[in-house]
């Protein structure tokens, strides 16, 4: 039987509650579809930082290198500044493994409730494709003259031609695989004078190679409004690192709950491991109670199996999630239920086993 090598990093807060449920469902899928998972567990987290002054060991990235993929919970906990915890663990993995695509589905599942009036599942079903290695997150800049009147900070946003073209190309390719073949670009070329006109230019250029794809573009501000007022307009939406970040919390929110939102950090060339994690964070406000929604994590596990070449198993998981919601199965508080994290995980694992 085939064995997939997975590095598991629960991280902080509810990551420690959602990852075990993700693994429970992955294990059920492995048994049902006849493959093995070789898991290596890493306890890297803000607790590691408190003990050692580092989020992960100096050779942390090398330790992950042999895995086919990384299955991550969430990173960040009060007491450790967010830019230290995230830049000590999550972001280096994305960048050093060149996981330049952040793929984030936004899908209203039957039986789950959208805050938008009168919207049906057929009307909210799109992907956010987020650039994941550069742009606004480039970390070039600094603070000068600290503590003086002349103090200032600056941060550059860097778009490389390679980085811009490859994410836009991925989005066009994804659009080609969808029935509507529609791609929307998030821009802000009215206010941001160098990077965003460049983004628009590369988008238009790439579009010439995909005449079958219908394209449009909106400035990020009105695009946010359209997500709420016209979610049915969207099929695939591509954006820079920060715009994609914002849209990928807004999209799942209009689709019901950030707790169900999944994401894949993909290195499409498979030169390096890809990473699968929910969109949400460590939720310190509800952590420790086992009331968080594990579906974002479980769905991320399905995206991981798809990437590993187990599409049937992936489909069984997403079908089980859809069935659970459509048939009124256990659901957590964020979706209007009373069930615990483990109840939802068990129900989905059982459905996968029985599929
Ligand atoms: P968050 O996603 O952790 O929480 C936002 C709100 O959504 C909270 O009210 C929380 O209770 C709720 N929520 C989130 N996930 C949920 C789930 N699965 N079920 C039910 N409710 C859920 O965002 P935040 O509060 O901005 O960030 C908290 C910490 O997590 C910070 O340290 C932040 O930097 C970090 N963070 C990490 C990631 C990541 O690891 N990818 C993503 C976002 C935030
Ligand atoms: C996400 C998160 C991260 C990001 C943070 C925690 C650095 O919000 O995965 O969406 O901005 O990429
Ligand atoms: Mn985010």
Quaternary class: single chain
User: How many domains is the backbone divided into?
Assistant: 2
Please provide the count of β strands: 12
Percent range of helical residues = 25-40%
Strand order of the largest sheet: 2-1-3-12-11-4-5-10-8-9
> What does the largest sheet look like?
10 strands, mixed
Low-confidence stretches: none
Proportion of beta-strand residues: 15-25%
Task: Tell me the distance between the termini.
Answer: 20 Å
The H-level CATH homologous superfamily of the largest domain, spelled out, is Isopropylmalate Dehydrogenase
The coarse overall form would be globular
Give the cofactors and ligands. Answer: nicotinamide-adenine-dinucleotide, 3-isopropylmalic acid, manganese (II) ion
Topology order in helix (H) and strand (E) letters: EHEHHEHHEEEEHEHEHEHEEHHH
> Number of DSSP helices?
12
CATH architecture group name of the largest domain: 3-Layer(aba) Sandwich
Radius of gyration: 20 Å
Function: Has multiple catalytic activities. Apart from catalyzing the oxidation of (+)-tartrate to oxaloglycolate, also converts meso-tartrate to D-glycerate and catalyzes the oxidative decarboxylation of D-malate to pyruvate.
Pfam families: Iso_dh
EC number: 1.1.1.83, 1.1.1.93, 4.1.1.73
Family: Belongs to the isocitrate and isopropylmalate dehydrogenases family.
What does it look like?
This protein starts with a strand and ends with a helix. A hairpin with a 7-residue loop joins strand 6 (135-144) and strand 7. It has 355 residues and is an alpha/beta fold. It folds into two domains: 1-106 and 257-355, Isopropylmalate Dehydrogenase; 114-255, Isopropylmalate Dehydrogenase, CATH 3.40.718. It has twelve helices and twelve strands. It is globular. Bound molecules: nicotinamide-adenine-dinucleotide, 3-isopropylmalic acid and manganese (II) ion. Nicotinamide-adenine-dinucleotide (NAD) binds next to helix 4.
């Amino acid at each position: 039987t085939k064995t997939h090598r997975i590095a598991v990093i629960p991280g902080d807060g509810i990551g420690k509650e959602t990852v075990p449920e993700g693994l429970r469902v992955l294990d059920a899928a492995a048994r049902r579809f006849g493959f093995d998972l070789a898991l290596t567990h890493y306890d890297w987290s803000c607790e590691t930082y408190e003990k050692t002054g580092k989020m992960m060991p100096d050779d942390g990235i090398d330790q992950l290198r042999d895995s086919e993929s990384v299955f991550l919970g969430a990173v960040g906990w009060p007491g450790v500044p967010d830019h230290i915890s995230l830049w000590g663990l999550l972001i280096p993995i994305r960048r050093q493994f060149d996981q330049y695509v952040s793929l984030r589905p936004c899908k209203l599942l039957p039986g789950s409730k959208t805050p938008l009036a009168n919207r049906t599942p057929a009307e909210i079903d799109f992907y956010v494709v987020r650039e994941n290695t550069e742009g606004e997150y480039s970390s070039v800049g600094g603070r000068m003259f600290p503590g003086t009147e002349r103090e200032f900070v600056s941060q550059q946003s860097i778009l490389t031609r390679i980085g811009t073209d490859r994410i836009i190309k991925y989005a066009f390719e994804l659009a080609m695989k969808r029935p509507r073949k529609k791609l929307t670009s998030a821009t802000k070329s009215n206010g941001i004078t160098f990077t965003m006109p460049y983004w628009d230019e590369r988008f238009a250029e790439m579009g010439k190679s995909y005449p079958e794809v219908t394209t449009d573009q909106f400035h990020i501000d009105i695009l946010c409004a359209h997500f709420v007022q016209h979610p049915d307009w969207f099929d695939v939406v591509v954006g820079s690192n920060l715009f994609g970040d914002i849209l990928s919390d807004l999209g799942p929110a209009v689709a019901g709950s950030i707790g169900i939102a999944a994401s894949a950090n993909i290195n499409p060339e498979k030169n390096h491991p890809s990473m699968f994690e929910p969109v949400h964070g460590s939720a310190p406000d509800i952590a420790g109670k086992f009331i968080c929604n594990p579906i974002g994590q479980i769905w991320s596990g399905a995206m991981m199996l798809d990437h590993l070449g187990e599409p049937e198993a992936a489909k069984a998981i997403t079908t089980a999630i859809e069935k659970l919601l459509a048939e009124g199965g256990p659901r957590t508080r964020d979706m209007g239920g009373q069930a615990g994290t483990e109840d939802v995980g068990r129900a989905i694992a059982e459905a996968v086993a029985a599929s």
